[in-house]
Every structure is written in structure tokens, then in C-alpha cells.
């Protein structure tokens, strides 16, 4: 279990550095929508292979089992597209900082929809997790010689889209957890349902985006590595959601910031700042408050 969490942290943390290595002249040469579709296809193929492995007696699922995953897949697809579209109404730095608010929305929905009280100690831990995300996003890393701090810019429409994004992202995580735990089916079969809808909805999103130059335009071995790592991370995260929950997922993402920072320092000679140290301390304290003994 610990290995699963550590590997997921490493995969999450390596995503942004790997994407940066794929850039050509400072720009991403491929369609991000195509990458998402390919990731979903890879997860679908892996789930099918795992399902075909010889096992004991299996229950025959009804169509209702599969249909239950349509909404989570739609929510995830909507969240991915919102994350791209909303950046038209704010600068990337603002998105990076304010998207951490989905920690609060996920925790609220987790508490309300799953009816699980968190208690003051755990809420404090989650607020520290939010503080860690804000600190790191605000200026945990910087290029040597660049000025400290940053200015944020967001339009009123951007604020509305941000609120919608945080709600949809949180709802996707919590609803997926509820469906995974409610069904007594193998996880590989549940993933097969989820990723089938994922391919459908994200495929429609790719067609709607009107990407030019073909599906595999700009792909390279580095991009395929991104696809493979994201697919593996998605499969690992389904294990986390099935056997732990969406709050654990938040902690995995928070810890991945630290992995991201170390990789960025090693690969791009970026510098750690005091805000990174603050973020690391907040994550450590949040872990203690949420999972430690009272």
C-alpha cells in the first residue's frame, strides 16, 4: 500500500516536468485533448487485460453497474476541459494558485454527500493542505534572477469558471469514490466501465476542440512517456479511491508538489524558496493532524 502511494506521488510529481521536456521552442507541439484520449485508451486497454487474467468465479454485472460510471466519466471530462478553457480568463499563475481551492470543495462534498464528519482536527489538517498548495503555487520555485512574488489576474467570468471547476472536480472525485465502494465488483471491471465512458466523452471533446494536423501531431517518445505515466497513475489512483478515498487522493496530490519541486530543481536548475519550505512543513503537519493519533 505504501509503495502504491509513493509511486502515485512520484508519477503526479513528474507530470509537469515531463510536459516541460516535451516543449518545442517553449510551446507544446501536440494536442492536449489527444493526449487525454490516448491516456483513457491506455487505461481502458490495461483494465481489459487485467480483467482477462484467470481468476475464480465471477459475477455477471448488469447494465446498471456500467451505467453508474457515466456520470463520473462525464464529470472528469468536464473538469479537464474547464481547466483548459478557464485559463482564457486568467493568467496561468492565477490558475495554478486558485485551483488549490478544490481541496476545500472536495472536502465539503466528501463530508456532505458521503455523510462523513471530519472533525475539527482533520479540517485543520485540510486547511493546512490548502495553505501548502497556495504557498507552493505562489512561489515555491523560481528561476535564478527572477523577481520574487507574482501578480494575479482574473476576470469575473474567470471567477465563476473557477468556482464551477472546483465544484466539478470535487464532485467527480467524491462520486467516483461512492460508486467504486458501493459495487462489489472487481476494480478492473469497474475501471473498464469508467474508462469506456472516458474514451467516449473525451473523444467527443477532442472532436469538438477542432484540433488541427491529425491526432498524433507533435507526438514524440517523450509524449508517449507522459501518456504511459498518466495512465499508470490513473490506475493507481483508482486503487486509492477504492480502498481509501478522495481525501487520500488530495494528500497524494499535495505530496506530489514536493516531488515536482525536486525534479524541477534537478532538471531545470530552478531554485527552492522559503515558500517551498513553508509548503513542505504544512504538508507534514497536515498529514499528522489528519492521519496521526489524537
TrEMBL record:
UniProt-recorded name of the protein: S35A4 protein
Which gene specifies this protein's sequence? Slc35a4
Q: How does it sit in the membrane?
A: Multi-pass membrane protein
**InterPro entries (UniProt xref):** EmrE-like, Nuc_sug_transpt
Q: Which UniProt keywords apply?
A: Membrane, Sugar transport, Transmembrane, Transmembrane helix, Transport
Read off the Pfam families from this record: Nuc_sug_transp (PF04142)
Where is this chain's protein located in or outside the cell? Golgi apparatus membrane
The organism of origin for this protein: Psilopogon haemacephalus
Give the transmembrane region(s): 30-53, 65-83, 95-114, 123-139, 159-180, 192-209, 221-240, 247-266, 272-291
Give the top-rank taxon of the lineage listed in the UniProt record for this protein: Eukaryota
The UniProt entry's sequence similarity note says:
Belongs to the nucleotide-sugar transporter family. SLC35A subfamily.
Gene Ontology molecular function terms on file: pyrimidine nucleotide-sugar transmembrane transporter activity
Annotated Gene Ontology cellular components are: Golgi membrane
Amino acid at each position: 500500500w505504501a509503495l502504491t502511494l509513493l509511486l502515485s506521488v512520484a508519477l503526479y510529481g513528474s507530470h509537469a516536468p515531463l510536459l516541460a521536456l516535451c516543449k518545442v521552442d517553449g510551446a507544446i507541439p501536440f494536442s492536449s485533448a489527444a493526449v487525454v484520449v490516448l491516456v483513457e485508451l491506455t487505461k481502458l486497454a490495461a483494465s481489459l487485460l487485467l480483467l482477462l487474467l484467470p481468476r475464480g468465479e465471477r459475477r455477471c454485472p448488469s447494465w446498471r453497474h456500467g451505467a453508474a460510471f457515466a456520470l463520473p466519466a462525464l464529470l472528469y471530462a468536464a473538469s479537464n476541459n474547464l481547466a483548459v478553457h478557464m485559463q482564457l480568463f486568467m493568467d496561468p499563475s492565477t490558475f495554478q494558485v486558485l485551483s488549490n481551492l478544490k481541496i476545500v470543495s472536495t472536502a465539503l462534498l466528501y463530508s456532505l454527500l458521503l455523510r462523513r464528519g471530519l472533525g475539527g482536527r482533520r479540517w485543520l489538517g485540510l486547511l493546512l493542505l490548502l495553505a501548502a498548495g497556495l504557498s507552493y503555487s505562489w512561489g515555491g520555485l523560481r528561476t535564478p534572477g527572477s523577481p520574487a512574488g507574482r501578480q494575479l489576474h482574473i476576470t469575473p467570468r474567470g471567477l465563476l469558471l473557477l468556482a464551477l471547476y472546483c465544484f466539478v472536480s470535487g464532485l467527480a472525485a467524491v462520486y467516483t469514490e461512492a460508486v467504486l465502494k458501493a459495487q462489489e465488483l472487481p476494480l478492473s471491471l469497474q475501471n473498464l466501465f469508467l474508462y469506456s465512458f472516458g474514451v467516449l466523452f473525451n473523444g467527443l471533446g477532442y472532436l469538438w476542440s477542432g484540433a488541427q494536423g491529425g491526432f498524433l501531431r507533435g507526438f514524440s517518445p517523450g509524449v508517449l512517456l507522459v501518456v504511459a505515466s498518466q495512465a499508470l497513475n490513473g490506475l493507481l489512483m483508482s486503487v486509492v479511491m477504492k480502498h481509501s478515498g478522495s481525501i487520500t487522493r488530495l494528500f497524494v496530490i499535495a505530496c506530489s508538489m514536493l516531488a515536482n519541486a525536486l525534479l524541477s530543481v534537478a532538471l531545470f536548475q530552478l531554485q527552492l524558496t522559503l515558500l517551498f519550505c513553508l509548503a513542505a512543513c504544512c504538508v507534514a503537519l497536515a498529514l499528522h493532524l489528519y492521519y496521526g493519533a489524537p
